[in-house]
Amino acid sequence: MPLTAAALQSSLCFSPNNPSSSSSSSSSSSIPFNLQTSNTTTQLAAKPQSLLQKHPLYTPTHTKLSLQFKEKILCLEIMGVDAGKALSQNPNLHSATLDSIQAIITFLQSKGIQEKDLAKIFGMCPHILTSNIKTELTPVFSFLSDYLKVPEYNFRKVINKCPRLLASSVSDQLKPALFYLQRLGFKDLHALAYHDSVLLVSSVEKTLIPKLNFLVDLGIPRDEAVGLVLRCPALLTFSIENNYKPKYEYFSVDMGLKLEDLKEFPQYFAFSLEKRIKPRHMEAVQSGVHVPLPLMLKSTDEEFRELLKQFGGG
Q1: Could you give the C-alpha distances from 250 to 48, 188, 215, 217, in angstroms and in order?
Q2: Which of 244, 250, 290 is nearest to 266 (CA)?
């Protein structure tokens, strides 16, 4: 169930095992965030203070940091969020209040997100910590429900799969990506929601279109290129410079394979060039055998050794 402000303070901001507060544990859990400074100082002076002092931000040059700022960093750290990284990636977090952060946590929990999910979600997308609930977060859940037909009890599963959904604009990002993908032929909403949701947070102009065009530029007819990405949606997620270009060069030059081989096995781009493609290919060459591309890459190490023997390599 959603955390109240008091529960957030108890479970995230102040350790329940704090020996200095054990005698008043029954009453401290009901004290709101604006508790008396003297009491807060006493609590922070015990176990939580050691956490603060170990944090990179808490060097002697930061002794004048406000108590509220220290409390905020402590809350993030106890949630499992790297406060330094979060503050660096989201400068607005400097001025965010504990109440506003607690409100976002409460809202997410009302949608099924659990406390143990927060470290991953906020760690990947610290901008969510300063989102506007009404204009930014609520529309995302409406999008999941209305456009992807995700039932409310599965919101957690979808968000954990792709936390970036919560940091994406519905009107500027999610809807345009969905409509583009549907025009290409993506009809399985369940797959888009639960497996390929990263496509929804990808820019149509900067990511999806250029990657499809790269396949076309290789000489693959556009309708066939579309068919490849429908069979293997991950093709729309690979980097052109770091994945497509070096792997295709090795594919065509070193391996001497043709486009027809690639069209039969587009999953080739999903394998590591240095850890899987090159070692397997070189071993096959040294053994003097030709192993079909899918078998060469998809097999386990043990299966690959057997394939070398089967195809005449020993």
Answers
A1: 54, 33, 16, 17
A2: 244
Q: Which of 76, 101, 58, 105 is closest to 12 using CA atoms? A: 76
Q: What is the pTM of this model?
A: 0.75
Helix runs in 130-256, H state only = 138-146, 155-161, 175-184, 189-194, 209-217, 222-231, 245-249
List pLDDT tens digits, range 245-302: 999 999 999 999 999 999 999 999 999 999 999 999 999 999 999 899 999 999 999 9
Distance separating alpha carbons of residues 90 and 82, to the nearest angstrom = 12
Q: How many CB atoms lie within 10 A of CB 280?
A: 21
Q: What distance in Å separates the CA atoms of residue 208 and residue 200, rounded to the nearest whole number? A: 10
Secondary structure letter of residue 120 according to DSSP: H
Could you give the percent of the chain with pLDDT greater than 90?
63
Those residues whose C-beta lies under 8 Å from the C-beta of residue 295, and which sit 6 or more positions away, are 307
Q: Which amino acid is at 81?
A: V
Contact 198, 226 (CB under 8 A): no
Residue 63 makes CB contacts below 8 A (sequence gap 6+) with: none
Separation CA 293–CA 203 (nearest Å): 31
Quick: pLDDT tens for 53-69. 555 544 444 555 677 77
Q: Could you give the CA distance from residue 199 to residue 258 in angstroms, rounded to a whole number?
A: 28
C-alpha to C-alpha distance for 268 and 263, rounded to whole angstroms:
10
Closest CA to 101 of 54, 157, 33, 153: 33
Fill in the DSSP letter of residue 187: -
Mean model confidence pLDDT for the chain: 82
Identify the pLDDT of residue 247. Answer: 97
Q: How many CB atoms lie within 10 A of CB 68?
A: 13
Name residue, tokens 């486009």: 259
